[in-house]
Design brief:
Layout lengths: L8 E6 L3 H15 L5 E5 L2 H9 L4 E7 L7 H9 L4 E8 L3 H11 L3 E4 L4 H13 L20 H11 L4 H8 L3 H15 L4 H10 L11
Parallel strand pairs: 1-2, 1-3, 3-4, 4-5
Length: 216
């Protein structure tokens, strides 16, 4: 039986730069403490995997894109495959226009720039925690447990259900249209459907609460 919905939520920051890692860890610990989210840090992916594998918590992993050893797109895929990892978030000083679509395509829920303040990073991560109930909604079919849609993919799916084209979705979410297309392809893959209407109907069947019927 999958008990991830009852696990204590936790955040793991993996970054090889000690000053940045500890400063961000301290700031996010202070912000997340009232929400009951445990914040941990690791200096590399190997250390991070040990923390994840030895815990019974439900993790969001904030992974630096550019580190010695496992990182980048391969790191996203490895951590996302862990049963107790709800989301992987990429964080980097690399060019977001180039790397955000690549990170999302590899399975990252978000791409965050290191130029962001800790307050902005907290706000973006908090939205992911607020959306975790969508992975295991109360009263949903057991089939819903098979699907792993990120918070951003759920937002895209909701806007699809409202009849918005890709360009409008991109404008509303303040992301590139290319990134929207990548999210839609991931949604189709996860829900095992072939078009937008099928995706919305499948989402309704799984009782995803914000997804409404496509307007005729």
């Amino acid at each position: 039986m999958n008990d991830s919905a009852t696990r204590q939520p936790a955040l793991l920051i993996i970054d090889d730069h000690p000053v940045y890692r500890e400063a961000l860890g301290e700031a996010l610990t202070k912000e997340f403490a009232p929400l009951g989210v445990d914040v941990k840090t690791a200096s590399n992916a190997s250390e991070g995997m040990t923390l994840v594998d030895e815990s019974k918590q439900s993790w969001i992993v904030l992974l630096d894109m550019l580190m010695p050893g496992l990182s980048g797109l391969a790191g996203i895929k490895v951590f996302r495959s862990k049963p107790n990892v709800a989301h992987v978030v990429s964080i980097s000083g690399l060019d977001a226009d180039i790397w955000e679509p690549r990170a999302v395509s590899a399975g990252a829920a978000l791409f965050l720039s290191k130029n962001n303040t800790s307050a902005i990073i907290f706000k973006r991560l908090r939205a992911l925690y607020n959306g975790t109930q969508w992975h295991h909604p109360q009263g949903a079919s057991s089939d819903a447990h098979e699907y792993r849609l990120t918070q951003r993919q759920l937002e895209v799916l909701t806007l699809i259900s409202m009849g918005h084209p890709n360009k409008i979705i991109a404008d509303l979410l303040e992301i590139k249209e290319q990134t929207v297309k990548i999210h839609i392809n991931q949604i189709f893959k996860e829900l095992r459907v072939f078009n937008r209407t099928q995706a919305v109907l499948k989402a309704q069947k799984l009782l995803l609460p914000s997804v409404t019927p496509i307007s005729s």
